[in-house]
User: Fold this.
Amino acid sequence: MSSGRTVLGMPRIPRSVDPETGLPDTTGRPDDPGLVDRFGRHAIDLRISLTDFCNLRCTYCMPAEGLDFLRGDKLMSVEEITRLVRIAVHEFGVEQVRFTGGEPLTRKDLPEILRSVSQISPKPDISVTTNAIGLEVRAAELKEAGLDRINVSLDSVVSETFETITRRPLLHRVIEGVDGAAAAGLNPVKINAVLMPGVNDHEAADLLTWCLDRGYQLRFIEQMPLDAGHSWNRSSMLTAADIMGLLSERYTLRPDEQPRNGAPAELFRVYPRGSAECLGKVGIIASVTRPFCADCTRTRLTAEGRVRTCLFSRDETDLLTPMRSGASDAEVADIWRAAQWGKQAGHGMDRPDFVQPDRPMSAIGG
Ligand code: SAM
Ligand code: SF4
Assistant:
């Protein structure tokens, strides 16, 4: 490691590799055109990181300083992103594409990416996960370009707490961005929040009230061990049960009757205590304490065009180099299928041999 800089670590060679092709071993894979894995899961949900750069520095996601960011032709171009989504839709039947990062709004060509991907037939459902900085001036253009939905990350509506978490005094910019997105018709606006003990846990009910008042749907995500500082601790993290307890101090929560259909968020209807008037819904994503790995339908691409089949993968499979070396769509699809076949059963956070990925969340794509 060079002094003062965070090294992301090169991905290791896949554990099980075909010695002839150098690709992940596909022994036992059925003759299925889709993205299937050894545990019978079928990926139809694609997450693409557009950049590892971000204008915030959330403590659970990035280091305060010292990251080297991918630039220029290390990142996938509009054409390369479109080609990979087309392969995913046409070859594998992928139905949903979510662009993430790092911060996707920092890519100036985001409208072009959305416009180009939305031309694919059948058009996938297209969403973006963002910190919303600058969204108020771009929301209408992004919607016109084909964006269907957004998720905004917002962990506190108290300026000091926001700055403690993100290391930037920019709460007002995020609120302008969220409100601008709603005004542009990017509804329903969903807000993602991570709670940390002693930092923003005491504000959980206030954040829910703020979202309910504006018609935004809040989802709390259990913090996962994807921080650059590797300081996550299973015994001190806030669990879904803790979050329910904090919200119940102000509200009554009743499980939503709608079937969950494998969605990661468990939804609850929210009532003022002692009242039958439903104010809206809140979601809890219990990735750590109630993992949904067995129902996972995701495949991921990093900003430099590598397949990561899980947030917690220790391996990645390069698609961009073969694409730039002239591989056909069918060849790229085969490499992707082979990578997905090797998807791990689960994140394994509760196992004693669990090892946190080298890359922080910002460099994986959340
Ligand atoms: N910059 C965008 C944003 O913040 O929405 C997109 C990228 S961010 C990595 C995607 C999501 O990952 C955010 O909702 C963020 O809260 C979540 N996230 C980041 N690090 C996390 C962690 N260690 N545990 C749980 N969620 C995390
Ligand atoms: Fe940036 Fe999103 Fe990570 Fe925060 S969570 S540092 S906004 S990439």
